[in-house]
Amino acid sequence: DAKTTQPNSMESNEEEPVHLPCNHSTISGTDYIHWYRQLPSQGPEYVIHGLTSNVNNRMASLAIAEDRKSSTLILHRATLRDAAVYYCILFSGNTPLVFGKGTRLSVIA
Amino acid sequence: DSGVTQTPKHLITATGQRVTLRCSPRSGDLSVYWYQQSLDQGLQFLIQYYNGEERAKGNILERFSAQQFPDLHSELNLSSLELGDSALYFCASSGRQGPHTGELFFGEGSRLTVL
Fold this sequence. Notes:
- The complex is a heterodimer.
- By secondary structure, chain A is mainly beta.
- In chain A, about 0% of the residues lie in helices and about 45% in strands.
- Chain A contains no helices and 9 strands.
- In chain A, the strands form 2 sheets. Chain A has a 5-stranded mixed beta sheet, with no helix packed on it. Chain A has a 4-stranded antiparallel beta sheet with strand order 2-7-6-5, with no helix packed on it.
- Chain A is globular, with a radius of gyration of 13 Å.
- In chain A, about 35% of the residues are buried.
- Helices cover about 0% and strands about 50% of the residues of chain B.
- Chain B is mainly beta.
- The radius of gyration of chain B is 13 Å and the shape is globular.
- Chain B has strands at about 5, 10-15, 20-25, 30-40, 40-50, 55, 65-70, 75-80, 85-95, 105, 110-115.
- The interface of A and B includes residues 38, 42, 95 and 100 of A.
């Protein structure tokens, strides 16, 4: 499986933007970049995914580097409810999602 | 609410026992996945079923088995339980729109404690 590298933890102030980085230098041409998050005591929750172009939805934005070797999940205004573990996952469609350790985001009021 | 229902939410049992965890996928979803989350291992994929057939297998122990029934609900059976089996077990579903796009919907999990 192509691997991703994320910082173990990050901290943000409430109402500030948050940029969560992910490196995936061995990404293949057919790999989609997926982001999930897991709030405390809950199951993982889909956030966003993309292939080559930047993507926006109601939860977040996904910025994908031109060479696709890295991506950034952007939360435009962090709230206390956004404190969670964020997982960056490569998905090719042939195998189930494989979760790594993710980035634990803390939001400070 | 993801639409995926898991029961029971909590379960405490003893070593050597057998338990069954149940999952009802979102209406219309054909794929069901089981994941195990423990403190030291993170989220580990166990097994996937698609429309009643096993589709993919991950790090599932031989003491564990699963099946998906004609009504698409799934059960995960854990037997000869050991202390190390204590974990959160998540079920997820996908497939309402047809081919798997990678978007999974997770239930709230079943917390198993083996004493």
